[in-house]
Design a protein that fits this description.
25% strand; globular; 608 residues; 16 helices; alpha/beta; Ubiquitin-like (UB roll); Nucleotidyltransferase, domain 5; 6-stranded mixed beta sheet; single chain
């Protein structure tokens, strides 16, 4: 019987199926958990995939309606509606995978030669005797010299542990050392052959992406996305800066809560993987400039007022013990350089990961979307960067029925005439709407002519009603929600999206103007960040957040900052590259740019 091989990327699974099996079923058989909110009926479009290679059945009417001709022409299909006609490769976007499955840079991570700053050295030493009275350190130095390494450098605490360990383990041990200044700084003392791990972190304003990485293979041992505990002191970095500026105790409290969460996550990793804290021998952290300063315990007053200068822009490298991180005694924390007051090391990491700056004659835009959005234009050997305050609307904040992306949150909406079909996370009854959902809803309202280019809900349009003298759109009636209350989209909700998309688009337009090019000259438009991964690209284009370019030029790459942090954990060369890249950046401060305000106002309107 004829069978077809389905290759599922980026998860790297392959499975053979018989004719008549659709791609969703194939993925499920292979153990790849794809989102299929409608159960495979083809009415939700959450199982969207791309087919770069192989023949499949023609698009169904459902696909033409849900995806449109442009996306289908770019290779996108609904997995539940598509059957292979030969061997097929299937690329699964991150948003089509069950939450938590993937935290990688889809197809753009690249090869990084392993060259971690901390090395593991296995020792098998001759014990002392009356004929050999050398000290313990002298014996270790001799073994290090045989491997081309400098003499041991350490304080008395680790030296004492080394001496005791050698005597208790028959003069066998593994030491973690960090070559520096011609010496070998002692980081940790471990059993012979013990695994060495490192911690890479993307410290986002809303979420922390934390990775435990094997330093000798580069493999991710454990990963987690956890809420930033500082949210309870302010949803955005501006409010946290204001809180920290009220007193030193407040600043210390913000730092302590962050470190406490990191330590708790790391402890869970270690228990799950069967390793101890002494095996975690190196740490890399990236974040926006405010998060960078709050993590390090630095003053943030200068970031709260013009000219928004950071305390430090240069790379930092210091003992992890200074922050109270529960890792190896001699472990250090590395933070790459910041670019400016509101373009931090996380954007440097994202640029490093996407490698867009290395292509001669190639023009790219990298947009890392969050409460604060960083944008870079890479053209003609130049790197132009800016930052815009896009606000918390994309996190569901400041939206009437907004919520974070959690079960029951509306993440996608289809509006046709008077009918509304919401799609929720985990297929739960709707209880609110998350950032990607409100963006999609606004785009659908525009398409349905329920909203005009000014962002005003049209009286008389289906489901548009008056409440307390103000227009609102009934998204889900109370009888169909999970909490028994109507879920609506208000004029204020629309305005929050206008503010956010206007700021982002204004930043893009100003960088293009400074680069002397038009949007049509951009070869690759790279969208990074958690929200950027989950946003519906067609919706973003419809509301005018991004310029209208062919869909194949857009790439939603996920947590690029986390990838860059992992690369710097594994490679000294990548750390050097980050420093060189930062020196090339030309930062544009939008708040003082002459044409920013009129550009921002123009971009708040929706295209007709």
């Amino acid at each position: 019987m004829t069978r077809f091989t389905i290759t599922l990327q980026p998860v790297g699974r392959r499975i053979e199926v018989e004719p008549g099996v659709n791609l969703l079923e194939a993925a499920q058989r292979a153990g790849v958990e794809m989102v299929a909110s409608c159960g495979g009926l083809g009415i939700c479009s959450t199982c969207k995939v791309r087919i770069p290679h192989g023949k499949v059945t023609p698009p169904t009417e459902t696909e033409l309606e849900e995806l449109g001709k442009e996306q289908i022409a770019a290779g996108y299909r609904l997995a539940c509606q598509t059957e292979p006609l030969e061997d097929v490769r299937v690329d699964i976007p991150r948003e089509s995978l069950v939450a938590g499955q993937m935290l990688q840079l889809d197809g753009r991570e690249g090869e990084v030669a392993l060259d971690p700053p901390v090395k593991g050295i296995d020792l098998e030493l001759e014990p002392p005797s009356l004929e050999d009275l050398r000290s313990d350190v002298a014996r270790v130095d001799s073994a290090l010299a045989a491997q081309g390494l400098g003499p041991l450098k350490s304080g008395p605490g680790l030296l004492g542990r080394l001496s005791q360990h050698l005597r208790r383990s028959g003069w066998r041990a593994r030491i973690a050392v960090r070559p520096e200044d011609g010496a070998s700084a002692l980081v940790s003392v471990l059993p012979h052959g013990a695994r060495l791990a490192g911690l890479a972190m993307d410290l986002g304003s809303t979420k922390l992406a934390i990775f435990l990485v094997d330093l000798e293979s580069g493999a991710i041992l454990a990963q987690a996305g956890v809420m930033n505990p500082q949210i309870s002191y302010g949803e955005d970095v501006v409010s946290r800066i204001a809180y920290a500026n009220r007193g030193e105790e407040n600043r210390k409290q913000l730092q302590a809560r962050l470190v406490e969460t990191i330590n708790q996550t790391l402890a869970e990793f270690c228990e799950r993987e069967g390793i101890c804290a002494d095996q975690v021998v190196d740490v890399v952290a990236v974040g926006n400039t405010a998060m960078h300063h709050l993590f390090c315990g630095l003053p943030v007053e200068p970031l709260g007022a013009a000219p928004y200068t950071p305390v430090v822009s240069e790379a930092l490298h210091f003992a992890a013990s200074e922050l109270g991180l529960r890792v190896a005694e001699g472990a250090r924390v590395y933070l790459p350089p910041n670019i400016a007051g509101y373009v931090g090391a996380d954007h440097v990491a994202a640029l490093l990961a996407t490698r867009s700056y290395t292509a001669d004659g190639h023009t790219s835009i990298v947009v890392d979307i969050g409460t604060n959005t960083e944008i870079s234009l890479l053209h003609g050997g130049r790197v132009l960067s800016c930052s815009c305050a896009s606000g918390p609307a994309f996190e569901g904040a400041h939206i009437r029925d907004g919520m974070r992306a959690a079960p029951g949150a509306i993440e996608r909406v289809h509006i046709s005439g008077g009918a509304v079909r919401p799609v929720t996370i985990a297929a739960q009854p709707p209880v609110g709407i998350c950032g990607s959902g409100i963006l999609n809803a606004v785009a659908e309202l525009l398409e349905a002519s329920a909203l005009d280019e000014r962002g005003v809900l049209r009286p008389g349009a289906p489901r548009v009603r008056q409440a307390n003298g103000k227009a609102e759109f009934l998204l889900v009636p109370a009888a169909e929600t999970g909490h028994g209350r109507d879920i609506v989209v208000t004029r204020k909700d629309v305005n929050e999206i206008q503010l956010a998309k206007g700021a982002i688009r204004a930043g893009i337009e100003i960088l293009l103007r400074e680069g002397g090019i038009g949007a049509e000259d951009v070869d690759d438009f790279i969208i990074a960040g958690a929200f950027g991964t989950h946003l519906d690209l067609q919706s973003a284009l419809r509301v005018g957040m991004f310029p209208r370019l062919p869909l194949e030029r857009y790439h939603q790459v996920g947590n690029a900052a986390g990838v860059g942090a992992r690369q710097m954990l594994l490679s000294r060369r990548q750390r050097d590259e980050a420093a060189r890249l930062t020196r090339r950046v030309e930062y544009i401060e939008l708040t003082t740019y002459p044409d920013f305000t009129p550009t921002f106002v123009d971009q708040m309107y929706f295209a007709s």
